[in-house]
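ok so I'm stuck.
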Amino acid sequence: MNKLSEELSWRGFVNQTTFKNITDLDEKTRTFYWGVDPSSDSMQIGNLAAAMMARHFIDHGYKAILLVGGATGMIGDPDGKSEERELKPLEEVAKNKAGIAAQYKRVFAGQEFEIVDNYDWFKGMGYLEFLRDVGKHVPMRQMLGREFVQSRLGEEGAGISYAEFSYSLIQGYDFYHLFKDKGATLQIAGADQWGNCIAGVDLIRRIAGGEAHIWSTPLIINKATGKKFGKTEDGAIWLDEKKTSVYKFYQFWLNADDSGVEEYIKVYTLLSQAEIAEVMSEFKEHPGGRAAQKALAYEVTKIVHGEAKAEMARQLTETLFGTGSYGSLNAENFKMLADGLPLVEQTTDGSLIDALVNAGLASSNTEARRFLEGNAVYINGQQIPLSKTHFDSHDQLHGYAVLRIGKNKNALVHFN
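replied:
not stuck anymore, here's the structure
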């Protein structure tokens, strides 16, 4: 087993740190914390990258504290935001906290960790107490020097409220509190949280005379587009299947760009160095087989949604785009597809032209007719005869049929 510093370096989890040498990580195990603010009831795959980094700390003997930011979530992190955030209702914050905590339990299943909520130590703290115990130890020059503060206060800036200005103090106090009460001496985070993390290190030094450290991971960039990884035309890729269906989640990873797939598989899976080397060797020898993307899609879906759903997504993909048999699909398979493909309702003897248009596979009746006349339409993987213009009972599998144009434009038909 690699040392922790070696594992993090090989996987690409090295960015800024307060350690003088990254091998300091190997000298002893520590208690660390990592947190997510409940700005939504689900994490995105950007959060998942940091979560996977946390898994390696745990695997190397570090004690994990996973924080749900009930208090910080009431304000919202202003870093990187050009305008003031809209405050979320307290009921929404509570719902979001529950969603994040549930995802912690799934992503870190089988690991030892403690979940904490910073609202628990802020709810009883008065304003004057916070000013005396925290604010007194924070130089204004340090806070005013933050890049996001400068940009918001500049001529073109939208300004900043006292609440958002104070956000880094709240997060900084989290680190101090966990240092004092739970012995946490390390905070891990994404690169965009560096400034907030430093606030905690400074508070620990100024108030307690203690030493604490930060380890941050780079933001993952899509090498094909140069944009932040996980941002798509349809929006963010969520861990909650109600926001991003399991099928769409699997397909996102399956469609990863060739230039970045090796980086993604190191970051987002727990495959060993030897296993990844084997996958990448096969991929480089036969890139058309997309072995790396297939391994990536399966492994990430297994971590986030469980092995059963990962297997189902793989089976569906093999059926729609490979050599799998439609006859082997069951009702649960079609329910998963219903969350991932365009869905149209049809009667048993409904018109194929109507279905093609309503599913978005054809832009008009004329184009749909041309597809039929060109022998380009498939039902459940079978090319239909030129004479066929309507569905019939033989097309149904568990009340559904997969309608396809060409090689990979699919829609799901539900018969009523």
